[in-house]
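Aim 2, interim progress: modelling of the uridine-diphosphate-N-acetylglucosamine-bound target.
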Amino acid sequence: MTNTYAVVLAAGQGTRMKSDLYKVLHPVCGKPMVEHVIDHIRGLGISRIVTIVGHGAETVEETLGEKSEYALQQEQLGTAHAVQQAERLIGDLDGTTMVVCGDTPLIRSETMEALIAHHKATGAKATILTAYADDPTGYGRIIRGENGQVLRNVEQKDATPEEQKVTEINTGTYCFDNRTLFETLKKVKNNNMQGEYYLPDVVGILQSESALVSAYVTGDFSETLGINDRVVLAEAECVMRRRIAEKHMRNGVTIINPENTYISAEAEIGRDTVLQPGTMIEGHTVIGNKCVIGPNSQIVNSVIGDRTTVHSSVVLSSRIGSVTAIGPFAHIRPDSNLGDSVKIGNFVEVKKSTLGEGSKVSHLSYIGDAKIGSHVNVGCGTITVNYDGKNKHLTTIEDDAFIGCNSNLVAPVTVGKGAYVAAGSTITKSVPESSLAIARARQENKEGYANKLNLN
Ligand code: UD1
Ligand code: CA
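Predicted structure of the complex, ligand included:
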């Protein structure tokens, strides 16, 4: 979009959130709300985006990085004052500027696009995005004239009882002719209940100067929710959750119960994958086709191949191949890399370990800092003893090895290709290829001894 700019307001503290975290950084479906706003704007191909930062400026800039330019609002004197801070960067450009609040993460790119198109088509100097709310409490109200033309916006706190009955609200998103915006901002006064410079007053000022101002009404109020407290935060989460789930369902993912399945905005999920109830797919997770995830699995920042199942398990920052089975009740900790056709069974913890194709750890084991080849069978209750109290050490198990049940592998140690470890062994020395290691006390049977012990 040429000659089109965006300003995102994100300098407020968000007092009503009652939080140490700045409001615009509160996540909605795992992503900070202001980042949703920025991503939706970026979806339009707008070249210059200026985010107004104040409270938590550094953290906001760190979160958004290169996605935006920044202007600092030292003191939070109101939304008009906030926009003024962008003048230094874009004040002398010709074109259209869209202003969006950093706390309205649900406004979709499509709606922004429609607003901009409407604004350009009418040739208005200012266009305000409005919606009808069942309960407009807290929002600015749109006051229209006899012929339905937009006259001005009035804030909740400044509205007369009559004005408070109006259900058409200011969503906090606008389009302006860029030069007119910065000229008019200079005329905004703060003689209102909050002693703030209100951005929507620009609309009223322009109207009183007989400039053309317009409104674009969006049909879906839920899209325009402004998150001022945690009650609305939860409502927004619900709307966003539904929206993300619908996107995946339309792409061919089965979600048994979208109401209790949580998918991050970034996640990618392949066709014919089934998400069972109670599943959380978080962060930048990529899941292949025909997988079954859940019930009750949590997958964070991980990559999973095709036809893999993850049943009632936790997978963190790991890669998992195809046709692999995890769980129930397994814990795959960060930096693990499990190959294809691997089996990780119940009560198995894997940490920073690699398992090659076809290897199995079926029950009750701890595999940490291990490099396990392909077609290895790790018996029930095996432990890689990776920590000496100071340092972590590596366990290597080569292809086709067989580790008997209840073994301790005291790292650093290597079990060679095709070697066997007898059940109950504590292995402290490396086991050569194709050999059998037995490291346990030899059994002795004392015949008849039970009668001696059995004194009566
Ligand atoms: C604002 C609008 C209201 C609209 C509502 C929509 C004004 C005066 N009111 O009210 O008409 O219905 O949004 O959600 O604009 N901010 C700054 N600097 C400031 C003040 C605010 O950057 O000095 C930022 C905040 O971080 C926030 C956004 O602007 O992201 C909106 O501010 P907020 O205080 O939430 O305004 P509302 O009372 O919700
Ligand atoms: Ca708000």
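The two ends are 97 Å apart (CA to CA). The chain has two domains: 4-224, 353-456.
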